[in-house]
Design brief:
By secondary structure, this protein is α+β, with helices and mostly antiparallel strands. The chain has seven helices and twelve strands. The chain has one domain: Endonuclease/exonuclease/phosphatase (Deoxyribonuclease I, Chain A, 4-Layer Sandwich), CATH 3.60.10. The chain is 25% helix and 26% strand. The strands form two sheets. Strands 3-4-2-1-12-11 form a six-stranded mixed beta sheet. It has a six-stranded mixed beta sheet with strand order 5-6-7-8-10-9. It starts with a strand and ends with a strand. 46% of the residues are buried.
């Protein structure tokens, strides 16, 4: 069975009239489960579920929320240190666990240390022998990933100068060292895979902040994973492009 899982930062709960655009984008993906970031408004999530046609949804004002076409067990795990709670979704037959994250923002060097703390806390919840995926806006850069710094806004260019010309990349490096696979990079080693910004903020995308990481048991079941560029409403819906993960269960 093909399972489609979307991770999508919807920018301030889709306020300012963007919910119809978000619903159009989500419907176009035919995703079975949608993991949302910046989804702090339960009413907005409920409206988005209704517009996009998802019977199951959940939001507890922790940034991470979900829409689903299949029944899932959902809970939110609040780490001792962290900006947002982790969302845990478990398929009823326990064939798959999903973890939604929205890590601390800012590419300033000290923020990477805090993101590392968040991921260390997440590891305490991850199952040792059940296939699982970690998805969301990590607000950091993977080792080896390119950025188009010329397209950064002025404040981001200043941050890069403070950092010595690059972003710190230790948080995702530690996840990879723990045995997780970057699903997009596994399939597309030579493509940038930028996930933001859309034309809502800039003319071209220049950074990859949104990822899907797979446990070793799940890698053989990977079918596809990539950021989406269509439909046109994607440029009105959010500042992030959604990332669609497809796995064969």
């Amino acid at each position: 069975m093909l399972m489609k899982i979307l991770t999508y930062n919807i920018l301030f709960s889709g306020k300012d009239g963007r919910l119809p655009h978000l619903a159009e984008v989500i419907q176009s993906t035919d995703a079975d489960i949608v993991m949302l970031d910046e989804a702090n408004n339960p009413d907005a999530v409920a409206e988005l579920a209704q517009r996009a046609g998802y019977p199951f949804y959940g939001c507890q004002r922790h940034s991470t929320a979900y829409l689903s076409r299949v029944s899932v067990i959902a809970d939110w795990l609040k780490p001792p240190m962290g900006r947002s709670a982790f969302l845990r979704l478990i398929l009823r037959d326990h064939r798959l666990h999903l973890y939604g994250v929205h890590l601390l923002p800012s590419l300033l060097f000290f923020a990477e240390w805090l993101r590392q703390k968040e991921l260390n806390a997440l590891k305490n919840y991850l199952p040792a022998d059940i296939p699982h995926a970690i998805l969301g806006d990590f607000n950091t850069i993977a080792p080896g990933d390119p950025m188009i710094q010329e397209e950064f806004p002025l404040e981001m260019k200043i941050i890069m100068q403070i950092n010595g010309g690059d972003a710190r990349r230790t948080a995702i490096a530690s996840l990879l060292k723990s045995g997780y696979t970057d699903a997009f990079r596994h399939l597309y080693p030579d493509e940038p895979g930028y996930t933001m910004p859309t034309q809502l903020l800039a003319s071209i995308p220049n950074t990859r902040l949104d990822y899907a990481f797979l446990s070793k048991e799940l890698v053989p079941q990977l079918v596809d994973c990539q950021p989406l560029r269509h439909p046109p409403a994607i440029h009105k819906a959010s500042d992030h492009f959604p990332v669609l993960l497809e796995i064969d269960l």
